[in-house]
Amino acid sequence: MDFHLKQITLSLFLSSALLCAATENVTSIKYEGMVHISQAVANQLNEVKVGEPLDPQRLDKAIKTFFDQGYFEDVWAEEEAGVVTFHFVEKPIISKIELKGFKENDEEAQKSLLQIDKGALYDIKRIESAKKRIMDALNQEGKIDSVVEVETTKLDNGSLSVKFIANEGKEIIIKELKYYGVSGVDTDAFDTVIANKERDFMGWMWGRNDGKMKIAELQYDPLRIHDYYMQFGYLNAKVDAPFVTVDFNRYEAKMVYNVFEGDIFRVSDILIFQDTAVIEDQALLDVIALEKNKPFNIKTFRDDADRIKTKIADLGYAFVQVQPDLRQDKETKTVEVIYRIVPGKKVRIGNVVIAGNNRTLDRVVRRELFLAPGDLYSLTNLKDSRNALGRTGYFETNTIEEKRIDDETMDIVVQAKEAPTGNIQLGGGYGSFGGLMLSAAISDRNIFGSGITMGLNLEKSMRTNNYAFNISNPRLNDSDFSGNFAVNKSSTQLDNFTTASTGLSVGVGHRFSRYWSGYAGYNYSANRYSEVDANLTGMDPRFFQTYTKSSVMTSASYDSTDDYYVAREGMAFSQSLEKAGVGGEADFLKSRTNFGIYRGLQKLTDFDLIVRYKARLNYVVDTGFVPISERFFMGGIGSVRGYRGFSISPYTYSADGSIERTSNGEPLRNGGTKTFSNSLELSFPLVPEARMRATAFYDYGMIGDESFTEVTRSSFGVSLEWFSPVGPLQLVFAKPLGSKEGDRTAPFEFTIGQRF
């Protein structure tokens, strides 16, 4: 900056000296080297005018005004015979900018740190600001002695290439962390709330504390420990800032906290004071979880305030204020909990604005909202609207902004970022089972932005032929009714027989509430077996008879999750019953139950960790004839990973008690009539900017004819979940546990388009 000031000062001095004797009028004005400002704009900025005497003060002011525009490295003026010429040296344009050595693969982080775009003018102040942001980010990550250098290279076209080179310093490792004055709580529990933790043995392993110091978090860790104490009634606990000593030869640190715990306070009373009575006090007391005569808990205290706010806001009081307060009695070591409530006025919704939906129709968004123009405000309806939009799977993210118009009116603005819902796949390959294979598939869960799902799949190999078409509308004519139609034709040549099937299904559903829905449908299929191995003596011969299936199905489902693909809260449940025998040879009753619960632990861990539990219970009752294709098999994605799909089931035994085998020696499996499988998963972000997550899982399943436990299998592993350009992709790496001889394992599987 000093360099530029010296330039303009010199220019002003020369201009003033040049004009000391000039008294004639200005006959014309010229601009040399000016690119970023047009001549018309320059004339407006210029206080020197044609036809007027040349005033040195006006000339100096004009030069300074031009320089202050920020486009020029230097500005000066010359006068000759009444002609005033302004000369400009433009700042160079940055045509290339990059950051090396730090956040190289994080495009969003680089934009945030640099804040300089290609095509911008080279400005030393902006360069220094970017350099400072990079240094601050390095320091926040605990990188000590970091250095950021800036290299500029002039290119042939006159523009500049700017390169920021970050030389990351060393990370400080916390080798020892001690607490003095702690007796009422377990210090190990502090690790669940603080950011700076002592390095564990083998801290480099996932799930262990690596001990890396996070300097930016040091000021907040004492507050986190204090907050933890207040969850156990220690209202007057004091936690000093940590005393830190660093060995810069080894880049190791020792930290010490001095803590004064104080006494435990119990809740003596809970009082409600409403500025204007809008609801019975007892209705608010009913949602409060704090209990009298129990230790005070700051977390429950805050949650109670949120529950009170929601209770009143659901009555239309959008701007309600809940002012919690505590009144301590140090003699009795009790605390009186007080909630003062200022409800304000009832608020109605004005306009509902939809933004960001470049493809999805406005009406598809609006039908998922539980607030409309003229409605009374409801905080629960607002939250449920966000979750309903997430469950559609049409949007990558969505937010609903509350725009206050006045004390009684609010507009809501839905900001949605659309997710890719359609994909086209063309493929080919060679497999050990099917040989040469060609496939083509097109599908879209939101075709033409209408919310309608449509898919077409064509697949042909040496052993398989599959053709299928399906279409479904979750909201027929934007109503609470849904409908679907599907047809398919397939054939598969297996080792011991060939099967072929042609079928169709049609159904209609109805949404009874924002979470509950029902469905009724009809299925028909014609199934044929051929080329059956004569050695399959242990199988029921009816399994290989040509048959038709005509069945009706009913189901009920509940879904309160907040997102279709990556749910962080809520529960999903479905129960279906299928009765075959409404015409056709197949005659059975089949039940399928699915359950899933999802919990995000962001608030507890300050990390986007998700816990998932999924369970599946299926059984079929033989009321006449159950074909083998209608019996149950386990294995693969959706049951017990690590085993090939449909490979786990009870064996078929011969009269002498030995296991029946196929002509190629494989154990003969005829499926089970009942099965249960469940999974526990921990999902965490792997590459957030690429929307890639990693999930560790444990699967356990059981299947049988007479009992569930005839065959049990389990596995563990990890999966990569990625929103790829072709749709949600899941790569599964699994290790079977307790596998038996004859089991067909599958250490790797993948799927596209399924819910995680």
Overview of this protein structure:
It is a single chain. This protein is of the alpha+beta class. It folds into 6 domains: 2-90, membrane protein fhac (Ubiquitin-like (UB roll)), CATH 3.10.20; 94-167, Ubiquitin-like (UB roll), CATH 3.10.20.310; 172-260, Roll (Ubiquitin-like (UB roll)), CATH 3.10.20; 266-342, membrane protein fhac (Ubiquitin-like (UB roll), Roll); 348-418, membrane protein fhac (Ubiquitin-like (UB roll), Roll); 474-752, membrane protein fhac: a member of the omp85/tpsb transporter family (Porin), CATH 2.40.160. The protein is built from 11 helices and 33 strands. The strands form 7 sheets. The chain has a 15-stranded antiparallel sheet, with no helix packed on it. Strand 2 (72-80) and strand 3 (83-90) form a beta hairpin. The longest helix is centred in the N-terminal third of the chain and has 17 residues, at 2-18. It starts with a helix and ends with a strand. Mean pLDDT is 86; it is low at 1-22 and 428-435.
| Domains (count) | 6
> Largest sheet, described in full?
15 strands, antiparallel
Shape: globular
Lateral arrangement of strands in the main beta sheet:
19-20-21-22-23-24-25-26-27-28-29-30-31-32-33
Number of strands: 33
Structural class: alpha+beta
Q: Compute the average pLDDT.
A: 86
Number of helices: 11
At CATH level 3, the topology of the largest domain is: Porin
Assembly classification: single chain
At CATH level 2, the architecture of the largest domain is: Beta Barrel
Distance between the termini: 54 Å
Can you tell me the CATH superfamily of the largest domain?
membrane protein fhac: a member of the omp85/tpsb transporter family
* Unreliable parts: 1-22, 428-435
Strand content: 35-45%
* Estimated helix fraction: 10-25%
How large is the radius of gyration? 36 Å
- What is the name of the CATH class of the largest domain? Mainly Beta
